[in-house]
Each structure stands twice: as C-alpha cells, then as structure tokens.
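Lest this sound abstract, we think one record worth quoting, the chain in one-letter code, the fold tokenised, each line plainly labelled:

>
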Amino acid sequence: MQAVLFDLDGVITDTAKYHFTAWKQMAERIGIEIDSDFNESLKGIERMQSLERILVHGHQEQKYSQAEKERLAQEKNDEYVSLLAGLTPEDTYPGIKELLTELQENKIPAVIASASKNAPLILEALQLNTYFHAIVDPGGIPGKPEPDIFVKGAEQAGADSVYCIGIEDSQAGIEAIKAAGMYAVGIGEESILGPSGADIVYPSTKELTLQRLLTAAQLA
C-alpha cells in the first residue's frame, strides 16, 4: 500500500449537514424546495454540478445565465463557510485521527481527494492539516465519478494507483476510486455502496485501522 486517499465530507467529518443547510437556503430564495433525500444526490459532486441538479429539480434550468448561476453558487458557498465557523477538532469522525497517526508513523502518505474547495479550511479547523501529504485542488478537474481527482492524488503522493486505497461515502466517489484502478473502501451502507463497486464497506469510520486496510489490500 503506497498511499491512502480520503474523501472529506462524510469520511473525515460531517459537513454534509452544512452543505444541505446552505443549499436549502439558497434554493428557497429562488422558489425551489429540496429535502434530505434529494440532498443525497448532491454528495460527492462539485458545486456547479450540484447547482445544476437543483435547478433541474425545480424546473429552472433555463432561467439563469452562467454568470447568475455562478452568483448563486457563490451565495451558497458564503453561507456554507459561515456555518463552518463552528467546526472544532471534536467534529472529526471516530477513528480518523488514530488512522492518520498510524499512517504518518508508518510513512504512508495520506491525501485528500475531495470536490470541496474548502478542504484546507476544514482540515485547519479540525487540526488535521499536518497529517496530509497533499490536498488535491479540485479546480479544473472533472468531478466524480470521473477518476481524475484520485489519479491526481496518487501522483501527488508519488504512488502508483493500483497500490492505493481510496475511502469514500458516496456512490460517485466509489465509482471514481474504481475507475482510477484503486481498492475502494466504502463508509456507509453495503446496499448502497456495494453495487457501486466498493471492495469492502464499513458501517462507520470506527472500523478503519491501518491493519484492516493492509489486510484488505493484500487480499485484493
């Protein structure tokens, strides 16, 4: 195992609730209602793609110019960033800091491969930034389920994709990991992530240990 690549939202911490609140408020301002079930379809994809899905959902996909769409997306992000102000190290998911410590002690690079452009801000709030070898910049990279962000992450770690493990909580993310040729670890429900190609699924991050990852990779 040459590197471990992590999604951020839903794997390192729960920022999904902040995304949902920010998207819901933006959508309501333009007369669109979204619920938590619809929010599931936004997981793992980048901001403008999420906005497009919301506009289609509200039958408003032809209503806005590109500049107006960018303004709406920025409004959402401004609200999201303000909500992140309350994030603390205690918001890190169980087992994550311990796993990152094990990886660091064993000189196995950890990389963030997330569609979130706010990843550096979030990791700093969680006091986890020093544990990561690299944070892939999602700008200009095709979003998940395309594999590009994971391929780029492996390159930044100086690793071969086939010897990397990716950890995700979304269907699009699992598909991206597999398309990159990596071993895919899902966090969540087997019934959802299994059909997307996850090699193994754990119900929570508490199950993640270096030994389990090494064993899983050897059996692949």
User: Anything to note?
Assistant: The chain has a mean pLDDT of 94. Residues 3-13+88-219 form a domain with the Rossmann fold fold (CATH 3.40.50.1000).
